[in-house]
Amino acid sequence: MILPIYIYGHPVLRKEAKDIEPQNYPNLKELIENMFETMYAADGIGLAGPQVGLEDRIFVVDLSPLADEEHPEFKDFKKAFINAHIIEREGELAAVEEGCLSIPGIHEKVPREEQIRIRYLDENLQPRDETFSGFRARVIQHEYDHIDGILFVDKISPLRKRMVKSKLANMEKGKVSCDYKIRTVK
Question: Is 25 helix (H, G, I), strand (E, B) or coil?
Answer without folding.
Answer: coil
